[in-house]
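Quick one, C-alpha coordinates below:
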Protein backbone atom coordinates (compact mmCIF):
# COMPACT_ATOMS: atom_id res chain seq x y z
CA UNK A 1 0.00 0.00 0.00
CA UNK A 2 3.00 2.26 0.61
CA UNK A 3 4.21 1.48 -2.92
CA UNK A 4 0.80 2.47 -4.31
CA UNK A 5 0.97 5.80 -2.46
CA UNK A 6 4.46 6.47 -3.84
CA UNK A 7 3.29 5.59 -7.35
CA UNK A 8 0.37 7.97 -7.06
CA UNK A 9 2.63 10.77 -5.79
CA UNK A 10 4.84 10.34 -8.85
CA UNK A 11 1.75 10.25 -11.07
CA UNK A 12 0.65 13.65 -9.75
CA UNK A 13 3.90 15.53 -9.22
CA UNK A 14 6.22 14.16 -11.91
CA UNK A 15 3.79 13.89 -14.81
CA UNK A 16 1.96 17.19 -14.90
CA UNK A 17 -0.14 16.13 -17.89
CA UNK A 18 -1.51 13.18 -15.91
CA UNK A 19 -3.67 15.37 -13.73
CA UNK A 20 -4.89 18.95 -13.72
CA UNK A 21 -1.51 20.67 -14.01
CA UNK A 22 0.44 18.59 -11.50
CA UNK A 23 0.45 18.87 -7.72
CA UNK A 24 -2.42 19.11 -5.24
CA UNK A 25 -4.40 22.16 -4.15
CA UNK A 26 -7.23 22.75 -1.68
CA UNK A 27 -8.25 26.04 -3.25
CA UNK A 28 -11.84 25.72 -4.49
CA UNK A 29 -10.98 27.79 -7.58
CA UNK A 30 -7.73 26.02 -8.45
CA UNK A 31 -7.98 23.31 -11.16
CA UNK A 32 -5.45 21.24 -9.18
CA UNK A 33 -8.08 20.74 -6.47
CA UNK A 34 -9.16 17.68 -8.49
CA UNK A 35 -5.86 15.98 -7.69
CA UNK A 36 -6.87 15.80 -4.04
CA UNK A 37 -9.73 13.49 -5.04
CA UNK A 38 -7.75 10.39 -6.10
CA UNK A 39 -5.09 11.08 -3.45
CA UNK A 40 -7.58 11.12 -0.58
CA UNK A 41 -9.52 8.19 -2.01
CA UNK A 42 -6.28 6.20 -2.07
CA UNK A 43 -5.48 7.29 1.50
CA UNK A 44 -9.00 6.18 2.42
CA UNK A 45 -8.14 2.75 1.03
CA UNK A 46 -4.94 2.78 3.12
CA UNK A 47 -6.86 3.36 6.36
CA UNK A 48 -9.56 0.91 5.33
CA UNK A 49 -6.82 -1.68 4.90
CA UNK A 50 -5.54 -0.94 8.40
CA UNK A 51 -9.05 -1.18 9.81
CA UNK A 52 -9.86 -4.29 7.77
CA UNK A 53 -6.77 -6.11 9.06
CA UNK A 54 -7.00 -4.94 12.68
CA UNK A 55 -8.50 -8.28 13.71
CA UNK A 56 -6.23 -10.43 11.55
CA UNK A 57 -4.38 -12.21 14.35
CA UNK A 58 -2.75 -15.67 14.54
CA UNK A 59 -4.70 -16.45 17.72
CA UNK A 60 -7.88 -15.18 19.37
CA UNK A 61 -6.72 -12.11 21.34
CA UNK A 62 -7.57 -11.71 25.05
CA UNK A 63 -10.49 -9.39 25.94
CA UNK A 64 -8.21 -6.42 26.76
CA UNK A 65 -6.34 -6.80 23.47
CA UNK A 66 -9.60 -7.23 21.57
CA UNK A 67 -10.94 -3.99 23.04
CA UNK A 68 -7.84 -2.17 21.79
CA UNK A 69 -8.21 -3.70 18.34
CA UNK A 70 -11.89 -2.76 18.26
CA UNK A 71 -10.99 0.86 19.05
CA UNK A 72 -8.32 0.83 16.34
CA UNK A 73 -10.82 -0.64 13.89
CA UNK A 74 -13.34 2.12 14.58
CA UNK A 75 -10.75 4.91 14.55
CA UNK A 76 -9.28 3.91 11.19
CA UNK A 77 -12.71 3.87 9.57
CA UNK A 78 -13.58 7.23 11.13
CA UNK A 79 -10.42 8.63 9.51
CA UNK A 80 -11.37 6.88 6.25
CA UNK A 81 -14.77 8.60 6.27
CA UNK A 82 -13.14 11.98 6.87
CA UNK A 83 -10.61 11.45 4.07
CA UNK A 84 -13.22 10.28 1.57
CA UNK A 85 -15.42 13.26 2.45
CA UNK A 86 -12.56 15.58 1.47
CA UNK A 87 -12.09 13.56 -1.72
CA UNK A 88 -15.76 13.95 -2.67
CA UNK A 89 -15.60 17.68 -1.97
CA UNK A 90 -12.50 17.97 -4.17
CA UNK A 91 -14.00 16.31 -7.23
CA UNK A 92 -17.22 18.27 -6.85
CA UNK A 93 -15.25 21.52 -6.58
CA UNK A 94 -13.24 20.72 -9.69
CA UNK A 95 -16.36 19.97 -11.72
CA UNK A 96 -17.93 23.26 -10.64
CA UNK A 97 -15.12 25.25 -12.26
CA UNK A 98 -15.55 26.49 -15.84
CA UNK A 99 -13.32 24.75 -18.36
CA UNK A 100 -10.52 27.05 -19.62
CA UNK A 101 -11.64 26.43 -23.19
CA UNK A 102 -15.23 27.33 -23.98
CA UNK A 103 -16.27 28.18 -20.41
CA UNK A 104 -18.00 24.79 -20.12
CA UNK A 105 -18.61 22.83 -16.93
CA UNK A 106 -18.18 19.13 -16.15
CA UNK A 107 -21.28 17.25 -15.08
CA UNK A 108 -21.35 15.46 -11.73
CA UNK A 109 -22.28 11.82 -11.17
CA UNK A 110 -22.36 10.94 -14.85
CA UNK A 111 -20.02 7.93 -14.78
CA UNK A 112 -20.17 4.39 -13.45
CA UNK A 113 -17.16 5.25 -11.29
CA UNK A 114 -19.09 8.04 -9.56
CA UNK A 115 -22.22 5.95 -9.03
CA UNK A 116 -20.29 3.06 -7.50
CA UNK A 117 -18.18 5.47 -5.45
CA UNK A 118 -21.20 7.23 -3.92
CA UNK A 119 -22.72 3.82 -3.19
CA UNK A 120 -19.58 2.58 -1.41
CA UNK A 121 -19.28 5.80 0.60
CA UNK A 122 -22.91 5.53 1.71
CA UNK A 123 -22.47 1.89 2.72
CA UNK A 124 -19.29 2.70 4.64
CA UNK A 125 -20.98 5.52 6.54
CA UNK A 126 -23.98 3.32 7.36
CA UNK A 127 -21.85 0.37 8.45
CA UNK A 128 -19.71 2.66 10.61
CA UNK A 129 -22.78 4.04 12.38
CA UNK A 130 -24.15 0.53 12.93
CA UNK A 131 -20.81 -0.75 14.20
CA UNK A 132 -20.22 2.24 16.48
CA UNK A 133 -23.68 2.04 18.03
CA UNK A 134 -23.99 -1.72 18.33
CA UNK A 135 -20.42 -2.84 19.05
CA UNK A 136 -18.57 0.28 20.14
CA UNK A 137 -21.12 1.92 22.44
CA UNK A 138 -23.07 -1.35 22.88
CA UNK A 139 -26.44 0.38 22.66
CA UNK A 140 -28.19 -2.90 21.88
CA UNK A 141 -28.47 -6.24 23.65
CA UNK A 142 -25.89 -9.04 23.24
CA UNK A 143 -28.45 -11.01 21.24
CA UNK A 144 -28.89 -8.20 18.74
CA UNK A 145 -25.13 -7.71 18.52
CA UNK A 146 -24.70 -11.39 17.77
CA UNK A 147 -27.34 -11.17 15.03
CA UNK A 148 -25.76 -8.03 13.54
CA UNK A 149 -22.17 -9.26 13.51
CA UNK A 150 -22.41 -11.48 10.37
CA UNK A 151 -24.16 -8.66 8.51
CA UNK A 152 -21.57 -6.11 9.72
CA UNK A 153 -18.68 -8.29 8.58
CA UNK A 154 -20.29 -9.11 5.24
CA UNK A 155 -21.01 -5.46 4.54
CA UNK A 156 -17.45 -4.61 5.57
CA UNK A 157 -16.11 -7.01 2.96
CA UNK A 158 -18.39 -5.56 0.28
CA UNK A 159 -17.26 -2.04 1.13
CA UNK A 160 -13.55 -2.81 1.22
CA UNK A 161 -13.34 -4.74 -2.03
CA UNK A 162 -15.92 -2.46 -3.65
CA UNK A 163 -13.71 0.50 -2.75
CA UNK A 164 -10.75 -1.13 -4.43
CA UNK A 165 -12.89 -1.74 -7.52
CA UNK A 166 -14.00 1.90 -7.46
CA UNK A 167 -10.37 3.03 -7.49
CA UNK A 168 -9.73 0.84 -10.53
CA UNK A 169 -12.79 2.30 -12.26
CA UNK A 170 -11.49 5.79 -11.52
CA UNK A 171 -8.06 4.99 -12.94
CA UNK A 172 -9.66 3.55 -16.07
CA UNK A 173 -11.84 6.64 -16.46
CA UNK A 174 -8.86 8.98 -16.07
CA UNK A 175 -6.84 6.97 -18.57
CA UNK A 176 -9.58 7.56 -21.10
CA UNK A 177 -8.66 11.26 -21.01
CA UNK A 178 -4.90 10.65 -21.12
CA UNK A 179 -4.63 9.03 -24.52
CA UNK A 180 -3.17 5.66 -23.55
CA UNK A 181 -4.11 4.07 -26.88
CA UNK A 182 -1.21 3.80 -29.37
CA UNK A 183 -3.34 2.76 -32.35
CA UNK A 184 -2.20 5.77 -34.37
CA UNK A 185 1.34 4.35 -34.35
CA UNK A 186 0.36 0.94 -35.73
CA UNK A 187 1.05 0.16 -39.37
CA UNK A 188 0.13 -3.54 -39.10
CA UNK A 189 -1.98 -5.78 -36.84
CA UNK A 190 -0.87 -5.65 -33.21
CA UNK A 191 -0.09 -9.36 -32.93
CA UNK A 192 2.68 -8.80 -30.37
CA UNK A 193 1.59 -6.05 -27.96
CA UNK A 194 4.71 -6.58 -25.84
CA UNK A 195 6.91 -4.99 -28.51
CA UNK A 196 4.78 -1.84 -28.33
CA UNK A 197 5.09 -1.49 -24.56
CA UNK A 198 7.20 1.63 -25.06
CA UNK A 199 4.44 3.19 -27.17
CA UNK A 200 2.14 3.31 -24.14
CA UNK A 201 2.66 6.76 -22.57
CA UNK A 202 4.67 6.60 -19.35
CA UNK A 203 1.88 8.25 -17.40
CA UNK A 204 -0.42 5.41 -18.47
CA UNK A 205 2.14 2.80 -17.52
CA UNK A 206 2.29 4.38 -14.08
CA UNK A 207 -1.48 4.41 -13.71
CA UNK A 208 -1.56 0.75 -14.83
CA UNK A 209 0.99 -0.01 -12.12
CA UNK A 210 -1.03 1.86 -9.52
CA UNK A 211 -4.11 -0.19 -10.36
CA UNK A 212 -2.16 -3.45 -10.17
CA UNK A 213 -0.74 -2.43 -6.78
CA UNK A 214 -4.22 -1.68 -5.42
CA UNK A 215 -5.46 -5.03 -6.73
CA UNK A 216 -2.47 -6.81 -5.15
CA UNK A 217 -3.20 -5.24 -1.77
CA UNK A 218 -6.83 -6.38 -1.93
CA UNK A 219 -5.74 -9.93 -2.82
CA UNK A 220 -3.23 -10.05 0.05
CA UNK A 221 -5.84 -8.78 2.50
CA UNK A 222 -8.26 -11.46 1.26
CA UNK A 223 -5.60 -14.15 1.83
CA UNK A 224 -4.80 -12.83 5.32
CA UNK A 225 -8.50 -12.71 6.20
CA UNK A 226 -9.04 -16.30 5.08
CA UNK A 227 -6.18 -17.44 7.28
CA UNK A 228 -7.61 -15.54 10.24
CA UNK A 229 -11.10 -16.98 9.70
CA UNK A 230 -9.69 -20.49 9.57
CA UNK A 231 -7.74 -20.11 12.81
CA UNK A 232 -10.40 -18.38 14.87
CA UNK A 233 -13.43 -20.47 13.98
Amino acid sequence: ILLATITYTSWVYVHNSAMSGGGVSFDYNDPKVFNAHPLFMLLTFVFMTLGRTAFVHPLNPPPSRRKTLKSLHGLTFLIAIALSSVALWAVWASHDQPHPQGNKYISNLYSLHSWVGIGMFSLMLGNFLIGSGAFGLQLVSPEIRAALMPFHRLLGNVIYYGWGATILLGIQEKEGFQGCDYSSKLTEPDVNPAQHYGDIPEVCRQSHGLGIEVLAVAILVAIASMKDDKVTK
